[in-house]
Structure formats: structure tokens, C-alpha cells
Amino acid sequence: MIKQINHDQGFLSQKATRATKADAAAVTDLVDTLKANTSRAVGLAANMIGVKKRIIAIQLGMLSIPMVNPEITKKSGPYEATEGCLSLEGQRTTTRYKTIEVTYQDQNFKSHTQTFNDFTAEIIQHEVDHTNGILI
């Protein structure tokens, strides 16, 4: 189900808790909401739709990829990025890393470890920050 985008910075600044199989509907809602906003977003975190769980979704072309309980385990190649956010007005500068390794579960709660680079890595870092209550 497509949800409204949350703009409450107090809520967005709270750290999310680990997701469980009981949160499967939130994964679906997050992907549906991202697909509905692809003209203006490349990623969303669950707290952006009012769910304080460690769930993100990223858009890679036509493919929406949910990541449950993502953790960045390695990072290299720091640089300054200018980013926007659906939950916030304007753009801000932040430090990101060119290459990251992420452990996460897919929507079926199967574990994965994967390396991401460049813009995809930047999207994931932005959304993982959301799950940690960090706003750009």
C-alpha cells in the first residue's frame, strides 16, 4: 500500500529497531511507496513512511530492492556528496564512501552480503543513516 511521506524530524531522528518477519507488510508498503515516487526518489527508509524499523528500499532502474536490517560492514573512498531527501527541504552536503559492503536480509528474510559502488552505495548510505536516526 502506498503511504504518505513522513516529514516529522522528531520521529525521523529516532533510531529504528530491527525488523522481523512480522514486519513483512511494511517491506511491501515501502516498496510500493518508492515505486509511486520514482520520479522524485531513488530510495526510502521505513521511518519515512512512519514505521520505525530497519528497512530500506532502493530503486535501480526499473527494479525496487528492499533491504531488511541493513548494516554497512566496510567502507572506503570518502568524498563529499550533495543530497536531497523527500522528508526534508533543500539539499545538504555530507560525507559518503565510494565503495561499501552491506549485510542485509531480502524480503524473504534470507541473508546477503554484497558490495556496492558509486551512486548505488550513496543511496544505501543515505537510507541506512535514516534507520540510525541520522538526517543529512
From TrEMBL:
Top-rank lineage group of the source organism: Bacteria
EC class (word): hydrolase
Keyword Hydrolase part of the UniProt annotation: yes
The family this protein is said to belong to: Belongs to the polypeptide deformylase family.
Keyword Hydrolase tagged: yes
Protein name: Peptide deformylase
Organism expressing this protein natively: Secundilactobacillus hailunensis
Molecular-function annotations in GO: peptide deformylase activity
EC number: 3.5.1.88
Pfam family, one: Pep_deformylase
Keyword terms, alphabetized: Hydrolase
InterPro entries: Peptide_deformylase, Peptide_deformylase_sf
